[in-house]
Amino acid sequence: MKTSVAVVGGGQAGLSTSWYLTRDGVDHVVLEAGTAAHEWADSRWDTFTLVTPNWHCRLPGYEYDGPDPDGFMTRDEVVEWIGGYVATFGPPLREHTRVTSLVERDGGGFVLETSGPDGEQTIEADHVVLATGGYHLPIVPPWAGALDPAVHQLHSAHYRNPEQLPEGAVLVVGSGQSGAQIAEDLHLAGRQVHLALGDAPRVARTYRGRDCMTWLSDMGLYDTVVAQYPGGLAAREKTNHYVTGRDGGRDIDLRAFARDGMRLYGMLAGLDVPGGSTLTFEPTMTAALDSADATYNSICRDIDRWIESQGIEAPPPSTYEPVWTPDTDPTGLDLAGAGITSVVWAIGYRPDYRWVGVGVFDGHGRPTHTRGVTSVPGLYFLGLPWLHTWGSGRFLGIARDAEHVASCITGTTGLRGSPARTSASV
């Protein structure tokens, strides 16, 4: 089979690309290993909600039009919303079709090997858009297998609810968005929670009468190009600010959790002895809390300056004051002695492009590109955090990135306006 463009990945990024290609009459196919947007259903816990307001949910030709634009869709609502997107334009989507190999074709273009309902197939494409995201392989420490086998372990990608875990206390490792929210989920369920902190910052849910992310959007922060952000391309490695959309949205205050009985620790260092149950921690807990609060207050001050510069009437400013302060930083934890029966690893993912046989990756296996365009003609990436701006990894910024990539394809090849094929004809 031959096609002009193969889009790998049927999530919001791949579908957005397909929308523009369909609009422009470009022959293409969207290859999805599962079902459209299945990651939202398969990798989120039961009480998951978006942390961005619903009005941020905008894809090409499609946006949230429900009754609560300032609310936060649940996992199931997001799945339904994206499912509704597919129905609006009928992309040439092949579900349950996994791309197992991508290589360059002699003379230009690419060859993709796939496996799916019809068996193994070969697809030749002039252009390929890799829209599989950057969160492929769940990370766990290399020594996790040496932990006492009596302790149940799972990654945040497989966490669903407190009831799936054995009775007893739970250690959550990682304080990014997933770790902080899962720790809260367990805490609200009455479980004794121990939380190992990383270096994630935090942000207020609402400030001076509006959601902070609405303020930041008005201020143009989500339009900030990665090269112009402090630290430049290193911003792509930054951990997102923790906050929650649960129950209408609120702050996540780890100090308040500690005040109410959650046990906090610094960065997890390792296992004391193989087969044991004693973990060691760096003495970084106090510094991590202080740093997160400093970011929280810094963002609020940025909003204050914006309000003043624009002459906006708003409630008065405020500063977060700690509700709990630790006496010391704990550096050890005996899981058995603390009654901990489960560990939830929430320390992120690493990319896995081993099936891509094209030289566009750095020494850490991450794609190298400029706004999704690689050094190999015809190969593009989409849907990565900070692909181009702070908004690139959010619903709010996907359309602009997808339009840019689609315009690179149509602008350089003259494909715009050629007859489009449907999923039945490819």
Total of DSSP H or I helical runs spanning 4+ residues = 8
N-to-C series of helices and strands: EHEHEEHEEEEEEEHEEEHHEEEHEEEEH
Number of spatially distinct domains: 2
Mean pLDDT: 92
How much of the sequence lies in strands comes to 15-25%
First-last Cα distance: 7 Å
CA-atom Rg in angstroms? 23 Å
Low-confidence stretches: 416-426
Helix residue percentage? 10-25%
Extended strand count: 21
Major beta-sheet overview: 7 strands, mixed
Key terms:
alpha/beta; 2 domains; five-stranded parallel sheet; 8 helices; 21 strands; CHP04046_FMN-dependent; FAD/NAD-bd_sf; Auxin_biosynth/cation_transpt
Secondary structure blueprint with pairings:
Blueprint: E1 2-8, H1 12-23, E2 28-31, H2 38-42, E3 58-59, E4 62-63, H3 75-89, E5 93-94, E6 98-104, E7 110-116, E8 119-130, E9 137-138, E10 152-155, E11 169-173, H4 177-188, E12 193-196, E13 206-207, E14 210-211, H5 212-218, H6 254-259, E15 263-265, E16 268-271, E17 278-281, H7 285-310, E18 332-334, E19 340-345, E20 349-350, E21 379-381, H8 395-413
Parallel strand pairs: 1-2, 1-8, 2-5, 8-21, 10-19, 11-12, 11-19, 12-15
Antiparallel strand pairs: 3-4, 6-7, 7-8, 9-20, 13-14, 16-17, 17-18
Protein name: MSMEG_0569 family flavin-dependent oxidoreductase
Keywords: Oxidoreductase
Organism: Nocardioides plantarum
